[in-house]
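Before a colleague's protein record goes any further, I have to sign it off. My question to you is simply how this chain folds and whether the C-alpha cells agree. I do not need a full report, just your reasoning and any doubts. This is what I was given:
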Amino acid sequence: MIYRICEAAVSVFVALAACHVLLLHYMGGPVLQTPDAILLAQTLVDYRIFIILGFTFTYFYLKIAGKDVSRLLIIACTLAWFSFFEDMLAMSNVLFVPELFVGKLAQFSRPVFLVALTYMAIESRRSLAHA
C-alpha cells in the first residue's frame, strides 16, 4: 500500500516537472540575465526531463512486463539525490522560475519525490531478496 502511494507521489512529481519544462519552453525559457545563462539553464532542464521521463517510461514498461525494477529504482534514486545536492550546492534556484505556480509545486514536491523514490528503491530490493 505504501509502495503504491510512493508510486503516485513520484508520478505527480514527474508530471509537475514535465509541465514546468513545457511552460518554460512556451514562455521562452527561464528568466535569467544573460543569453549564456538562459541557454545553460534551458539545456539542463531539457536533459533532466528527458532523463526523468526515460526512467519513468522504463519503470512502467518493466512493471507491466513483470520484470525486476529494483536496479532501475536504485540508479534513478542515486541520480535524483545527486542532482538534488548539485542544485542545493551549486545552482540554487536557477532551474525553476519562482513566479511559475507549476515550478513552485515541483520545487515543493521534490523532497516528497526523493523520499518516495528512496522508499521504492529500498522496498523493491527487499522484496527481491525475499523472493
